[in-house]
Amino acid sequence: MVGRCRDHSARSASIGPSSPRIKWAFPGTPDWPVIATDGTIFASPSLDQLGPDSDYFAAISSDGNLEWTIKTATRARVSPAIGSNGVLFGAARERLFALTPTGSQLWSFTASDWLSPPALGTDGTIYVGSREHQVYAVNPVGTLSWTATIDGDASVPPAIGNDSTVYFTSIAAPRLYAFSPEGALKWTFATGGKVVITGPILGQDDVIYFGSVDGHLYAVRPDGTQKWLRGDLGILFEPPAIGSDGTIYVGSNSGKLFAFRPNGTLKWTFEAVFAMHGLLVGGDDTVYVGNEKKLYAVHSDGSQKWVLDFPSYVAPSAIGADGTIYVGGDDRKLYAVGQ
Known about the structure:
By secondary structure, the chain is mainly β.
């Protein structure tokens, strides 16, 4: 996955390995890295060689070596984003910052509290939400374009539609928000008291999908009306992912991976044992998902392609242009899985 998708579809054009192996393990705990076009991995690890829980942002080479670090005021625990010119945008608690590809800081912007992972508009505007109910649009030079207040914690990743509409959900608040790129509230969608805990993603025709803690998956049209609703899925801690044909994949704490057609009908269910963590879709529509100490690859028809064992609980987080799958483990390591 190169950079951060505007629609947060968790889909990559790259095809993962057919016979996987662990190529290397980097000592740290990178939170949802992103991959540049040259294969450089940008993340916010707790670098063991710099001390536990160090407040650094780092660049890691495609062969697993540390290239550079930059000190941040607090640990940058959210996934960064990469602009079209290679500029990196990251967040460390209440600070949003921009870095050159070589690690020099261009600017920083201070918000009200802990920020979400950033999302980038087509004009370079950076959108983030904060834990203190604020959402922000920041210009590419680091100045505030606009801000708005929503109900509840907004520190989950926003998504951006093809018409540049910006979508936010709020942790613990039963609502989806749609803002124009100028900051006007277009509409809100109420979930009837069901608590939303995942960020929104966009599928075919800009339909918005998001999950809730009580096991509901929502599909909402771009005009704010409900398209369909599916329940009894288990707790949906992770956002869904979208296949090339519009299939919606969602993993549950019940140990099940569900595949839904764009009309909301169930295609298939893949069952493992433990809660599903992380969700990526490759260029051939293979679905990658973590389940305790295993990484599963599942064909688009719901059959198992392969499974790879790890020494710790794992979740896939990105796919490089060469098909390498980057997997975060709870043993404080980033794993590279390749052919």
